[in-house]
Write a structure and sequence with these properties.
- The protein has about 120 residues and is mainly alpha-helical.
- It has 3 helices and 2 strands, in the order ααββα.
- A two-stranded antiparallel ribbon has the order 1-2.
- A hairpin with a 2-residue loop joins β1 and β2.
- The longest helix is centred in the middle third of the chain and has 18 residues, at about 50-65.
- It starts with about 25 loop residues before the first helix and ends in a 20-residue tail after the last helix.
């Protein structure tokens, strides 16, 4: 599978892309509270806080539709070679950032967590 950054597109008049550091497309909150009837085969769900950014994105999209005021642009996640660039705590550099990755008490990534691999303080 090619690295994700090869599919990047620059923001444009009708496009905003937010790469969110420390999370994947769905987080534990979404699974627990929004999709509880879905069974996931691996049992490993990302613990990064994606739902906060999704809520902000939906609100920004609504504003864009209603008023024409485009959402903010987001910095891309930094890469080195074919890997995501990480800080000293193991969290991604760049991207749209939550307090969880800016002031971390754990290492957050888009990789699923199990009880054995759940984030622990660095």
């Amino acid at each position: 599978m090619p690295p994700f950054y090869l599919a990047r597109q620059p923001d444009a008049p009708l496009l905003r892309t937010w790469e969110v550091a420390g999370t994947a497309h769905a987080d534990q909150y979404l699974i627990d509270y929004q999709m509880s009837s879905i069974q996931f085969p691996c049992g490993a769900v990302n613990t990064g806080p994606q739902h906060y950014v999704v809520s902000a994105a939906v609100a920004a999209l609504k504003t864009w539709i209603e008023s024409g005021l485009a959402p903010a642009t987001g910095d891309p996640i930094a890469v080195v070679g074919n890997a995501i660039a990480l800080d000293a705590n193991g969290n991604a550099l760049g991207g749209v950032r939550s307090p969880h990755v800016d002031v971390p008490i754990a290492t957050y990534s888009g990789v699923g967590s199990t009880a054995e691999s759940a984030p622990v303080p660095p």
